[in-house]
């Protein structure tokens, strides 16, 4: 792999940072309640796994669907996963300030959410926490961020004060058996640059760097076991690219490096390519614009936007449904679920109760949910059943 054979990445094609993170949950209902009522993020889209109709796919974002895309599968019958070697270990969420971490530490304590203490990593203040599955997350303060500012703003219907709300995704942690091999892939293929080491953690940044454009490689300890996927673990992480044209560049580049990959995949909400970067570690390159099918819908005048130009700057979640209605009920992109395929998907979903009808309810005056309340709610039962 030489610079002559594989030239440097043109400025217009440099990856923008973390696009989304997709994880596995034991319960679609519980993760919906945890994210909306404790973390203060909105459900931007309720759909199914496009390759497995018996699996829900939930997308959570901040207010405008541009900064904090954390998504979940609920694979039927899957066992609990294990963290460890060859795994994407932890996702991060960005909050505005160090004072925000004080707010969240108190909020997690009151909500009985397992969490650590505020600590510094690479010059940034952070706070680690877990959900009911033992899924690992951290909050990271943007107060000392030197990279690109967050593109998002906190969800306006949340009971989290706007000055402390989650605005985007931060660094993602990856632990592999061969960190030198993954380092080479990050630098040579994806254009990341080394930014420092603290203990067992090494920071790599891309584009403008900072909290939204960073990955952290974690060196495995001698006692670490090998990971395996199940609920409570991360399925894949996605890095962002501008549009379908830049995605084509990345497909060609990844093919040139002969990394195992999917080729072009249209997910409607974005277009993407999946690439295996290490054993057990799956990356995705996803467009910031809506996917090919969504853009075609906009061109045809059948979408919820007024023009193709508007579609280019609108979240893909709100091309087939309006922002005000999205997330309330099952959504199936029409070109991916034609005719009988839509019937099969709706039938499968109907057999798996899930109530998200209150996703656009104003929660600003709500009492704080506890983790116990999240765990008590039965799948599909209305909130009133918990009162």
From TrEMBL:
Coiled coil: none annotated. Signal peptide: none annotated. It comes from the Bacteria. Gene3D superfamilies: 2,3-Dihydroxybiphenyl 1,2-Dioxygenase, domain 1. InterPro entries: Extradiol_RC_dioxygenase, Glyas_Bleomycin-R_OHBP_Dase, Glyas_Fos-R_dOase_dom, VOC_core. Residues 17-142 form the VOC domain. This is VOC family protein. It comes from Lactococcus taiwanensis. The lineage of its organism: Bacteria, Bacillati, Bacillota, Bacilli, Lactobacillales.
């Amino acid at each position: 792999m030489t610079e002559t054979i594989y030239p440097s990445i043109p400025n217009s094609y440099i990856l923008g940072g973390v696009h989304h993170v997709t994880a596995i949950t034991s319960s679609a209902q519980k993760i919906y309640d945890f994210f909306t009522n404790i973390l203060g993020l909105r459900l931007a889209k309720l759909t199914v796994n496009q390759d497995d109709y018996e699996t829900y796919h939930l997308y959570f974002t901040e207010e405008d669907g541009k900064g904090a895309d954390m998504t979940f599968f609920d694979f039927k019958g899957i066992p609990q996963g294990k963290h460890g070697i060859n795994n994407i270990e932890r996702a991060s969420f960005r909050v505005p300030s160090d004072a925000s971490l004080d707010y969240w530490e108190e909020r997690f304590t009151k909500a009985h959410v397992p969490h650590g203490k505020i600590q510094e990593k690479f010059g940034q203040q952070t706070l680690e926490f877990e959900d009911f599955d033992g899924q690992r997350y951290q909050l990271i303060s943007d107060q000392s961020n030197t990279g690109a500012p967050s593109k998002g703003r906190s969800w306006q219907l949340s009971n989290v004060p706007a000055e402390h709300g989650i605005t985007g995704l931060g660094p993602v942690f990856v632990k592999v058996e061969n960190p030198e091999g993954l380092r080479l892939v990050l630098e040579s293929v994806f254009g990341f640059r080394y930014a420092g080491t603290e203990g067992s953690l090494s920071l790599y940044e891309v584009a403008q760097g900072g909290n939204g454009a960073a990955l952290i490689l974690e060196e495995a300890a001698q006692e670490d076991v090998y990971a395996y996927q199940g609920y409570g673990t991360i399925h894949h992480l996605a890095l962002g690219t501008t549009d379908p044209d830049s995605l084509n560049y990345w497909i060609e580049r990844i093919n040139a490096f002969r990394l195992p990959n999917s080729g072009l995949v249209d997910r409607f909400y974005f277009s993407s390519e999946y690439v295996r970067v290490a054993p057990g570690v799956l990356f995705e390159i996803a467009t910031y614009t809506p996917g090919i099918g969504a853009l075609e819908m906009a061109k045809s005048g059948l979408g919820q936007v007024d023009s193709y130009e508007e579609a280019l700057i609108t979240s893909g979640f709100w091309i087939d449904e309006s922002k005000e209605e999205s997330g309330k009920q099952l959504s199936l992109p029409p070109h991916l679920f034609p005719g009988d395929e839509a019937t099969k998907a709706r039938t499968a979903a109907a057999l798996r109760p899930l109530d998200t009808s209150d996703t656009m309810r104003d929660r600003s005056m709500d009492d704080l949910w506890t983790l116990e309340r999240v765990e008590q709610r039965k799948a599909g039962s209305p909130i009133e059943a918990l009162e």
